[in-house]
Amino acid sequence: MAINWIEGEHPTPRQAEQASRHVMQALGFGECQGVWTLHRDTDNDHVHLVVNRVNPTKLPAVSVPWRDYFLLDRCMRELELELGFARAQGPYVTVDTVERPKIVRMSRAERATPGLLRNLDCPRLSPSAQRAEHNLTASSFQKWLTGAPSAALHRVITARGAIWQHAHDALAEFGCVIKPKGSGMVVTTTLSDGRVLAAKASLLGRWASKASLERALGAYTEPAAGSPQRTDPRRTYEQSVERERHAEILPRRPRNEISVGRCARRPLSHRDGRVALALWALSAAAQAALRGIRYRERRKGRQQEEIAGEGIAPQRPFTVSGLRAEVDAARHVIIYRRADGSEVFRDVGPRIVVRDKGDESLEAALRAAAQKYVGRIQLTGSESFRERAAAMATRLGIVVENAEHSIDRVAEATGYRSEDVFRRAFVRQFGVTPRAYQRRAICPLL
After folding, report:
1. How far is it, in rounded angstroms, from Cα 124 to Cα 166?
2. What are the respective helix, strand and coil percentages of the chain, to the nearest 5?
3. Hey, which residues does 160 pair with through a beta bridge?
4. In this structure, are residues 406 and 438 in contact, taking their beta carbons and an 8 Å threshold?
5. Which of 182, 323, 347, 438 could, after both became Cys, cross-link 334 (CB 3.0–4.6 A)?
6. Would the CA dihedral through 362, 367, 371, 373 be positive or negative?
7. How far, in Å, are 148, 151, 186, 231, 353 from residue 166 at the CA level?
8. pTM (two decimals)
C-alpha cells in the first residue's frame, strides 16, 4: 500500500515510520512484519509499505479487514492530527469543536453541503491523461469527454422513454462509442491514425456508472446494425484538439485589428496571411518548436539574472524561510513570494530566475538552487550579479561551474581529440578524474 502526503509537505523518516506503524496497527497487522520506504521522486512525498500478513509467531495469515478503505481514511485523519500535517477530506472529516478536533464519518451529500468536497466541477483525470494534456498542450480525451459529449448523453438518458440506442446515437455524433468493459462501462474514440482512446464512463459522474445507466436504460444492448451512425467531424475529439492548438498559436484578435476596413489599427498583410496559413498546416511538433524559437528570440538582447544547473531533482516547491511557494501547474512554474506578495524568484525548471537582487533574496535563491541542482550551479546575467552570486555561493559551500569552460571544451582547447582521452591523461597525472576534482574543490579548476 502507499501513504501519500499533500504537495509541499515533506515528512521526516521518523514521521514516515510512525505513519507506517499506525496504518499497520489500524488494519490489524500490528504483530506482523513490514517494510517501508520513503520516496520523494514525485510532487507528493509518499511511503511504500509492504506487509507480511503471516504472523511470525502464531503463523496463521491475518485477513485484510472488510471495507479497509474506511479504516485507512480514518487512520489518515488521525495521523494528520497527531503529526500536525494539513487536513484532507474523505469519508471521515476532522471537525473542530470547543473541546478538541473530532473525526466524524460523513456521507458524500453531507460533505457537499458544507463545501468539503473539492473540485466538484472538475473531473479527476488519470495520470496518463494529465501527461497527455502536458504533451499535447490541449485537453485530454478524458477532460474533453466531460464537456459537450457528457451533456448530450445526460440529456438523452434523463428523457422519458430513453433506450440504449438513443445513448449510442448521442455519442456517435462526437465520434464516441460506449460499451461494457469488466464490471463497468467505457467510452472510446478512434483517431485517424487508428489509435483508440478510452475513458471510464463513471468519469462523467455517478449518473454514468454501469448500474445507474442500466437502471435508466435497461440491460445494455449493442447499437442497431442497420442504424446510421452520424458523426459530425467538427465535434470530434481530434478537431477539438486542433482548435485548441491553433488558438494557442494564433490567438483570436479583435475584429478591427485584422479587418482591412477604415477602423483597422493594422491591416492583415500578405505576409501575415502566409504565416497564418503555414501555422495552420504545421504539425504539433513543429508548432512546439516554433514556440521555442519565438521564446529564444524574445530572450535575445536581454540577459536575465539566472541560476541554472542540471535538473537532477524533480520540480517541486522547497521550504525557504520567510517565503511562500505558489505552484503554477499549467505553466510548470513555482513562484516564491514574500508575505506582502512581492516576487523574489521563480523556478522555471532548468533555471531559477532571480527577480529581487537584494542580498537576502539572492541567498534564498542560491539555497533553493543548491537543493534543486545538488550543490552545483551555473550563473548567467550581468557581470556584477555573477560576481556577487559567486562570492555568496562560495561562502555557502555551493560549487559554481563555468559553462564556457566545461570539461569537453577544456579537452578540445588543450589539444585532446576527445573528452575520454583527456580524462585518462588527467587521471594519470593527478590520480582523480576531472569531475571528481571539480566536486572536491570549492573554487573549481575548470
Report:
1. 27
2. 40, 15, 40
3. none
4. no
5. 347
6. positive
7. 16, 14, 17, 14, 55
8. 0.39
